[in-house]
Amino acid sequence: MKLSEIAEVTQGAFTNRLETFSSDVMTSKVKPLSLKEFNQTLGLTYRISKEKDAAITVPKDKLTPQLLTDSNSLILHTQTQKIALLPEKYSGLLLTNNFIKIQLSGDVDKAFFEWYFNEHPFIQKQLAVLCEGIVVPSLKLSNVKDLEVDLPPAQQQILIGKIAQLKKRKSALMAERSELQQLYFQHKLIQSLSKTNRF
């Protein structure tokens, strides 16, 4: 079956077309979802240390729920071809045109689908073909909707989803442990140098 048969798939907005400076309409300030927040959700490192954190002003009538993040939908980054189930703390952020929102039907386990999309060879082969020959690989909305999916029974999805979440949590904890070890060793080295310089 195609992804469009089990999910509502929506492209994010072009912020320059959505942002307004008019005082004639009711507006809301909204912060766009950043790649840093997206990568943190997946446990990936993000190399850019400074990223603009500015909210933009948008007409309230254009700010539909499909353009905002929530903790019940999967978000696809079109250039990295990865999806993430965002935590509650990232709800209410604006999806820009680099993101696609995937709202799965109730009988598909979201944690399973995050793993399935990001790691299963069946999906990865399709993505490789769709992004072939492009200088900067990017998925189109129509291609995402047409992705073929082959889902196991619901109970198996739930089990795989739980295992995938535990694996992701373990990776995050190991990365945090490694970072803390590096800080500890750095502190000890500086401390030993300070003691040496006293004599």
From TrEMBL:
<dbReference type="GO" id="GO:0004519">
    <property type="term" value="F:endonuclease activity"/>
</dbReference>
<dbReference type="GO" id="GO:0003677">
    <property type="term" value="F:DNA binding"/>
</dbReference>
<protein>
    <submittedName>
        <fullName>Restriction endonuclease subunit S</fullName>
    </submittedName>
</protein>
<keyword id="KW-0540">Nuclease</keyword>
<dbReference type="GO" id="GO:0009307">
    <property type="term" value="P:DNA restriction-modification system"/>
</dbReference>
<keyword id="KW-0378">Hydrolase</keyword>
<keyword id="KW-0680">Restriction system</keyword>
<keyword id="KW-0255">Endonuclease</keyword>
<keyword id="KW-0238">DNA-binding</keyword>
<dbReference type="InterPro" id="IPR044946">
    <property type="entry name" value="Restrct_endonuc_typeI_TRD_sf"/>
</dbReference>
